[in-house]
Write a structure and sequence with these properties.
Oligomer: single chain
CATH superfamily of the largest domain: Butyryl-CoA Dehydrogenase, subunit A, domain 3
Largest sheet: 4 strands, mixed
Strand content: 15-25%
Number of helices: 11
Order of helices and strands: HHHHHHEEEEEEEEHEEHHHH
Number of strands: 10
Low-confidence stretches: none
Length: about 375
Amino acid sequence: MKLILNEEQQFLKDTAKNFAEERTPINHFRSLRDNKDNLLWDKDTWKEMVNLGWSGILIPEEYGGSNFGLAGISVILQECGKTLTPSPLFATGVLGAYAISQYGTEEQKKKYLPQIANGEITTAIAIDESSHHNPLNINMPAVLKDNSYILNGKKVFVVDGASADLLIVVARTSGKTGDSTGLTLFLVENNQPSINVVKLDMADSRNYANITFSDITVQKENILGDVEAGGEAIENILDIGRIAISAEMLGNTEAAFESTISYLKERKQFGVLIGTFQALQHRAAEMFCEIELTKSSIMAAMQGADNNSNELQRLASLAKTMAGETLHLVSNEAIQMHGGIGVTDEYDLGFYLKRSRVVEQIFGCSKFHTERYANISGF
C-alpha cells in the first residue's frame, strides 16, 4: 500500500487548505464562540462548502454526489482541522452520507442523499446513552406497535445534534444491553415536538447535544438497513467516522505543532532563542516523529476503507488511538513550551488543547480503541 495521495485527493487537500486559510481562519471560529451562536457554524460558510461539492464526496454520482471516497473527505477535514473550521461536514458529509448510501433503501437514497449533497438538510447519529462510548451499550427500546415502532429514551453527546434535521438513531428491538444483535437503525426527522434537544456547552465550543425521545412513532419504511442487523452496520459506520475524525484531529495536531515550532524560533530566554535548548529540541523531535507515525496510520486507514480492506476495524482503531494520543501530547507540549500565554483566551493555542480533550472521546478514546485493537487481534 502506497501511503501517498493521488492527484484528485491532493487537489481536494489544496482546495481545502486555501479555503480554510482564506474563509475560515481561527478568528472565524472565535467569533462564533464569542457571539454564542446557536448553531456554532455559519450557514453561508456551509453553503460555500456545499458548492465546492464537499457534502457529496461520499455520495454516489446518481444521487448528486462525486463518490471520491473516504480519503477525499478526510484530507478536507484535515485541512479544516488546522483552523478549527466549524461546520456540519463530519456529521453530515461523512456519517449521514455514508450511512444512507450504504444501508438505505432506494427510496431512502432518492429522498435524502440529494438533499445532503445540496446542503438542504444536515444529519447526526445518535448512539451513546452514557458518558463512556460503547456502541453495544444500548438500552433505548424500539417497541413494535401495529406497523410502526415507538421510540423512548435519551441519547447523549450527539455530534452536531443541536442543528441536525435528520437523526440516525440506534435503538434496541430485542436482546439486552451488550448484545451485538437486536439493534436497529431508524431515520427520524428532527422536527417533532416530542423530541427534546438540549445543546451542550462543551469546552471546545463545538455543536453537541443531548436528545430525548418521548413516544416517537417511526414507520417501518424509515428503518435504515435490516431490522436487528444494526449492530454490524453501526460498527461499520462508526469506523468510517473514526477515520475521518482522526484526520481532523491530525489537522488540529499539525496546527498546534507548527505554532509551537514558530514560537521556539522567535522566543528568547537568557538572551538566546529557546529553540536552541537541547531539551526542547528533543521534545520537538518526539512530537514530529509521533505526528509522522499518525499520518501513516490515518493514510493506511482511509485507503483501506476505500479499498474495502478486511482490516478496516483494526485500521480504524489504530488511527483513532494514534490521533488521540498524538493530539494529547502535542497540545500539552505546545502549552508548556509557550508558557503562561498558551492558556490565555486571547491566544489561539488554547483552542487546540480544549478541542483535544473533547474530540478524544468522540466514538471512543485511545483506551477504548487500544482494547478493541487487542481483542480484534486475538490478544
